[in-house]
Structures are given as C-alpha cells and as structure tokens.
Known about the structure:
alpha/beta; 2 domains; single chain; Spore Coat Polysaccharide Biosynthesis Protein SpsA, Chain A; 9-stranded mixed β-sheet
Amino acid sequence: MFKEVAKDISVIVCVLNEERRLKKCLDSVYENNPGEVILVDGGSKDKTISIANQYDKIKILEGKNLGLSNDRQRGIDNSVNDYIAFIDADHRLKKGDLIRLKADLTQMNLDIIQSGLKPSIESGYWVKSEGFHSKLFHNIPGQKRMIGTAPALYRKSVFNHIKFDGEITSEIDDTDFMYRLSKFPALKIGVANVIIEQEHFCNFSSYLKKFLWYGKGDGQFCIKNPERALSMLFHLLIRYPIIYSFKGIIKGGLIYIPFFILQGLVRLLGLSLYISRYISKQVYFTLKSKCLTLK
Length: 295
C-alpha cells in the first residue's frame, strides 16, 4: 500500500551543513517510499553531500549561498510528481506519514498541509517548552490562516500561482510565502492530524540564537511588507509574552512561561537590530550618493 500511494510524492530536503542530523532524516524519508527524493544543498562544507550520496536514486542539487527560499524553489522546479513534501533535516517521519499527510490533505480539501510537531526526545527545559508550545497552539488539525513551510505536503499546482522568492533570506521563507499565498483565497492551508517529530538541540544558547534568527526574519518581513509591521509588533509584544503565557497558565504550563516571554522579547530585539542596521545602510548610501553628486 505504502509504495503504491507514495509514488506521486516528491520529497525535497533542503540542507546546509547537516551531517549531524541528515542520516536519521533520510532513513525516515526512505521508509515512506516516496516516488522521488531530492536533496538541495546550500553549499555545505561538512559531510552532508557524502552522506546523501549513500542513498539510492537520490537527486542531489548543489548550490552555494543561494538561500533557503531559492533552494526550495529549485527543488520544486526539478521535481516530477503531483505532490511536493518539504522535509527538513531535523524532521523524523514514521512509516506511512506521507500517506497520512496526503489523506488529511484530501479529506480536509486543502492545497497545503503541515504536520503537527513534537520533539523527538523530550529532554531539557527548552525542548519541553517548545513541545508544550506546539501542543497548545499548533497541533490543532484543520484549516488555518498561517502555517510553516515544513514539514508539509503541497499540491504542486499551488506553484502555478506562487513561487518562493529567491530574493529573501531563509529567516522568513515561511512567513513571506504564506503571506503572499493569502492573496489567493481559493488556496487553502491547514494542519494535519499527523504529528512528525523534530530533533532540536536542547541548550539555551541554541534557542537564543534561533529566536534572534527569527527576529531578523521578522525585521525583513516588516521591511518588505510594512503594512504588516503593527501586526508583527502585536505578535511579539502582546501575543507571545502575554496571551500565550496566559493560555499556558490555564493549561497547567506555568513552568513554560519564560519560554514564551523570551521568544517574544528576543525576536523583538532581533527585529530591532535588523531594522536599525537596514536604516543605517540606507542613510549611509543616500549620503554617499549625495556627496558623489556634489563632486
């Protein structure tokens, strides 16, 4: 059954220096017997490519510093099947997950469906906090207004209407894509009943860097879409530290409140730093241009 139904699914795995997590990811992908596996490498300097080469019939697309959005689109452009599954190196599928994602996509009449999420190993405060966050706010099956780009299954026909923007950076590939997708109300997105595990590094510094990275993406998104700036500020200043914390307390997650507060405030810091640098560069180039004109 698995081999028969998964033949029309192309799995695309975009990677950059993922030698520590790639093998477990690809093992779980191959266990699902998709019709095609494409690995898009962003210029890895470790053993990522040599690990990928150990797998049968894998299509490897190499590039260098082209960005995650560009890599995702390259994978799509080189795929041959009617469905696209974006699976990242930190994701761990169970046998039959791709089929179950497709079944949920069909049953819910959606065009894109993201899986639910949970940590592969629930150890350490920060990993447990992220798991609580996913369980409380993300793992609710049905149609949504916003989802992530992976792990997710797409009808390939979606990309006749919209493509990943190669000009943006990896920090906002999902926010930017889903926001532009919202301009096509006929295209429906949602969250599946399927829950896929993700392997994240569990120390505080890893999460701090990740939140700053998200914040940089939030800043890029606000510059590209200034009409969404107030909504983004509400998200970081009100929704995360206050609304999410309050809902967490109601659900017995008082211990996880620092996670919500830290994510909101650190992302706000990352956003502020990015926009400050952006404005400084714009002022510098404007003044430089004026000086050259005066000469």
